[in-house]
## 1
Amino acid sequence: MDWVRGKEIGRGGFSTVHLATPAQTCSSDHTPVMAVKSCDAALSSSLRHETRVLSELGDCPRIVRCFGDALTGCEELYNVLLEYAAGGSLADSLKSRGKPLWEPEIRGHTRSILQGLEFVHSKGYVHCDVKLQNILVFPNGGGEDVKIADFGLAKRAGERLAKGGKLGGFEWRGTPMFMAPESVNRNEYEPPSDIWALGCAVVEMATGRPAWGLQAGSNAYALMIRIGVGDEIPEIPEGLSEQGKDFLTKCFTKNPKKRWTARMLLKHPFLALDGALNDEEVVRDCGAEFTDSSPRCHFDFQDWVSTQCSRTSWESGSLSPSSEIDSDPSLTALEIWADDSSSVIDRIGELASQERPNWEHSEGWVTVR
């Protein structure tokens, strides 16, 4: 594709980013705008790697598209043509607002990022640098979509990193404030490390500050000790809903084998909440804590420890809420089902009789979906 370089819109350590338009339609008012990332051809290994990764991943609506690459300027510059994000990065958007995002916005962006990560992981890759600076914003009819960008540090899942670097045989990848414990301790960068980084990004969206409360230029080695040693995790924002807090605990599980996957997190109640659903309409099957202790499904009896009950107690109907709960709090809901007016045997008898049972006085029942 022939293209024309436009004004500069960004600059990194080794590359610059310009606007670009296809040469054959550059005079049209409807010219599609692209972003071209360029660097010295002699220093282009990372950018070439990103191009290969994007080519192998293929198209995904939650990942920035790549339109190809080219050498220019007597082959002195290596260029990659990418989808242009008019809204900049999510970090830029958060900074320009000067305040944290609303929870519905956090849920929407988190859902989109997870959909992208689930796709990346399903293709056998790990992004290795998930952070708000690498999440790009695309305005869309009054709202905005976000997509994952910058795959320069991506690697194949299961691929061991090269050793012998400056850090005692370890090659740190990504941004320290977003690194997972296993990355710090064992040089391990697999799909769970992307999930930890996602949790850090959610905290930043919710607070407007980095997850570990640090600013750029802070001591990276001191941060690595905090991440890798002990049980400390990033502070979970108090302003988040209970579902949001539970979602983050799933991201910040220290053991990567027990950390939730992108596919699991996409089914979490936190992401099921939107304007069309209220808290009572959300499927509660992902481990979130709720104040209502009534079971919602046949697996929801983790706090109801079974205890034995004598036959005489059942037959006499002596187990009643008013007489037995205070004296023996270990009794289960099944054992105290009888009330003052009828015994358990009487109730079962009503079910077995030919007359239709009367349940009008069964107060306290809840609807189970």
## 2
Amino acid sequence: MKLEKLVIASQNPHKIEELQQLLNPMGIEVLSTQDFPELEEVVEDKETLEGNALKKARYVAEATGLPALSDDTGLEVEALDGAPGVYSARYAGEGASYQDNVDKLLKELGGVANRAAQFRTVAALVKGEHEFTFEGVCKGEILKEERGDKGFGYDPVFKPEGYQETFAELSSAIKNEISHRGRAIQKFVEFLKSDK
């Protein structure tokens, strides 16, 4: 698919910079919602990651008249039947800090032997009438205590499969390569290169 301009439905400077590095070499001008101060904050109230990603991308595409890319991510813990999932950012309640969410997760898993978990990201591209989604998954486990000071959210307690370090201990280059978001965005980039 040919794109000349793309609006990232995000205010997150790290996410925007990461996408600019991937897409600028392809000749795509990457804008973000920061370039459109009149846009309103989209309430993520859907029951699925796909629903939230599509809701944000649809709103930004309609408001700007440009193709829009959005994503939503959840941490899915096996022993908690997939929780916190779509509620990962507000697991400990509205306005909870990253630390509040991590504390609640560790408390819920206290004494639980099965610590298997995965991060799942769904990226959504909306261009006019066309909508596409791309999913990325990173499997791993939840540790019993926090390690590392890089990253954000649940990174200090999530150890990806095949690594001894948590996401918060890995370099951003390695994390971006193996992470759920990195994998979803890689599928998106491959889709753009495939001339569909």
## 3
Amino acid sequence: MLKRLSKIHQKFSPEKLKIISNIGWLVSERIFGMVINFVVVIYVVRYLGSANFGKLSYCISFVGLFEAIAKLGLDDIVVRNLVREKEYTNIILGSSFILKLIGSLVACSLIFISSLSFNNDWQTQLMTLIIALGLVFTSFDVIDYWFQSQVQSGAIAIVRSGQLILNSLAKLIFVIWQFPLIAFAWLILIDYLGKAIARIWVYWRHHYSLFDWRFNWSQARRLLKDSSPLILSGVMVAIYMKIDQVMLGNLANDQAVGNYAAAVRFSEIWYFIPIAICSSVYPAIIQAKQRSEQEYYSKLQQLYDLMVWIALAIAVPMTFVAKPLMIRLLGAEYAEAGEILAWHIWAGVFVFLGVARSKWLMVENFTVFSFATTSIGALTNVILNFLFIPTYQGNGAAIATVISYAVAAYFACIFYPPMFKTGWMLTKALFIPLRFRQNLVYFQAIKTKLL
């Protein structure tokens, strides 16, 4: 057995082994987190009830609408620059940190003003402001970007898992001791702080220091120039990913938001998979682009195909078991959440493809197109929510989400000439179950590596 594993190990290049190891760490961390969250969310949702859980979810979604301003669209830009310009690592990290800190303060100010204008419930306003303060600590996300650029996610994954355990235990204590609703908002803020401290610690453990970071106006301007279309794009992404719960809260009621939020928790729990895989192969895609266009697009097609296969493997069975699963886990009060989940789970197909396509857009620096597609998706979602929510409530919001995700991730490509090639690649990926010859090639390749 050990000899066979050794032979398999030798057949992979060091670069591929590094990617596989990185994906392994990220996926293991997320699966561990998924199991923990799966158990804890059940207790929290049952304890709060659909109305209170809906109110908390409304606050989280409201803050999420402004989160893109705190991020400034820098995520993939910083990773790309760290891979390409290793000699400027400390300047890139320092400049992006200051930019994100400024962005988070602006976001908090906008949330404060907006929450007072759009909601009259004092408890909802207070919880929104408490959660919003956590955005300040997301400035330390730049440490994650460095680990992504080095394809070294093992250490930080372990630390995040430890922090997840502590946060989950705190939630269970809150449920057992019957803490009030606002305590869960404070816990979210503490979780943001804990993540920042954990990132700083693991960075220091790797013998690096935040005091080595340097802010540079020229570097900051260049980062903002590349990311400026992505800031607006991120706002649009936030709108078409978060606006459904906000609109449900305004057009329906807290109970409708609670059912929808519960379904979304079980639907979006899988979204770590494309993020883990795509962030791990992103440096390899950049390097493939530098070597050969043919190799570059071949890797992209393989990535698109993989994304669809994984998404379908989740969506198909979940469609049939969604309602009995939600009733069994959360109680009869959440029966409607099962119906919503059966619709919403299909958004995952386009989310998986969208995450993969975003890496191609980043390599090609097509940030303007990214903004255009997300804007169309956001506008579609808002219009469809206005049409569907009054009649179908949570189910209508789920259907609107699936359609808007499809428009942004796929249909926008097949109607815009410069994107025809990518649109065709995504079409092939969506039909991967019917591409028997290609599946046989993939199977033979996997078999050869393993045997």
